[in-house]
Amino acid sequence: MRTTVGWRADAGDTLRRVPLERRDLRADDVAVRVDYCGVCHTDLHALHGRDGRPLVPGHEFTGVVTEVGPGVTRFAAGDAVAVGNIVDSCGVCRMCLLGQENFCYEFPTLTYDGTDRHDGSTTLGGYSREYVVREGFAYPLPSGLDPAAAAPLLCAGITVWEPLRALGVGPGTRVAVAGLGGLGHLAVKFAVALGAETTVVSRTPDKAEDARRLGAHDLLVSTDEGQLAAARDRFDVLIDTIAVEHDLGPYLRLVAMDGTLSQVGYLGGIAVETMSLLAGRKKLSSAGSGGRAETAAMLEFCAEHGVTADIELVPSSKVNEALERLSRNDVRYRFVLDLSDLS
Ligand SMILES: NC(=O)c1ccc[n+]([C@@H]2O[C@H](COP(=O)([O-])OP(=O)(O)OC[C@H]3O[C@@H](n4cnc5c(N)ncnc54)[C@H](OP(=O)(O)O)[C@@H]3O)[C@@H](O)[C@H]2O)c1
Ligand SMILES: [Zn+2]
Ligand SMILES: [Zn+2]
């Protein structure tokens, strides 16, 4: 085994700096020095929702390859790479063959709190100075992208990119993004860069200026019934990134006939009034993470269009404070941990 250092929660929710073990490199593994790791709201859900088992969060990071296994062909030491929220899949099921490893019938291996397909160990995430990953699940980081601001693309970004692409968003599409947080602000940047007319739906009126700076043409205040009523049936696609369970009714009313609400924020059971789908033949969908080809395509698009996250970069020693502020919606729009203080 190799040893590194990272941030782990044990019995409580507080992360502590501890030594961690990484596997020795398999033939197709690369070792990555993790430089920057985004703080995703899923990390908060995972910390609060577990049964006391140890957890090292972090599933959107960038860094540099330090060592490669003997069978590695795509990377060499010194290459800048990015890793997201899945690190393996079966490779042979219909979804994997379609390039949708994120929907692998055998379930993709999650970057943290997943089960390694070969040795059965529990995966430890990117709040750590080193990560060992199969080369097929590491992506070359385009040189034009700032590595700290690019880290959130690998979870927040790809999670909204795939549905925007799958739903054919482009010039002439009217897109709404509900919840202006980590996922939401990237959804706005992508939709705008794809040429769509884009509107934010937020409970926070103070974000209106930011929404416009991000390229949105409007912000609707979700608690203002008059504003919502005036926007009835307006959007072809609504990407809902709200981090808590909520009534979809008011959001479905904003969706145009034959349009789609893609619920990517809260994942879990939801009661939906069928009538709010019936009137206008509306569609309810979801998405999460991304296939390997689409993830690489997203990174290329970001390099071409200059899209990265708006971040607050903090030393990794501030991780507990960052999580606490994220829980209070006090970040615009993504914390990224600088892990160089773990060396
Ligand atoms: N599908 C997937 O694979 C996937 C991947 C990553 C994350 N997620 C999930 O996506 C959600 C968003 O993640 P994130 O990292 O973007 O979180 P985030 O940065 O905290 O943003 C979430 C946004 O939701 C809105 N919101 C939060 N609490 C709310 C409440 N009580 N009522 C109404 N609106 C509320 C806020 O926007 P406003 O202030 O603008 O209203 C907030 O900025 C999380 O639940 C996360 O677990 C899913
Ligand atoms: Zn995430
Ligand atoms: Zn598979």
TrEMBL record:
Domain Enoyl reductase (ER), residue spans: 12-337
Required co-factors: Zn(2+)
Coiled-coil region: none
Enzyme's top EC category: oxidoreductase
Keyword annotations of the record: Metal-binding, Oxidoreductase, Zinc
The protein's Enzyme Commission number: 1.1.1.2
One Pfam family from the record: ADH_zinc_N
Protein name: alcohol dehydrogenase (NADP(+))
Family indicated by similarity: Belongs to the zinc-containing alcohol dehydrogenase family.
Classification via CDD domains: CAD1
SUPFAM superfamilies listed in its UniProt record: GroES-like (SSF50129), NAD(P)-binding Rossmann-fold domains (SSF51735)
GO MF term list: alcohol dehydrogenase (NADP+) activity; zinc ion binding
Top-rank taxon, per record: Bacteria
Organism: Amycolatopsis saalfeldensis
Entries under InterPro entries matching the protein: ADH-like_C (IPR013149), ADH-like_N (IPR013154), ADH_Zn_CS (IPR002328), CAD-like (IPR047109), ER (IPR020843), GroES-like_sf (IPR011032), NAD(P)-bd_dom_sf (IPR036291)
Catalytic reaction list: a primary alcohol + NADP(+) = an aldehyde + NADPH + H(+)
Database matches in PROSITE patterns: ADH_ZINC
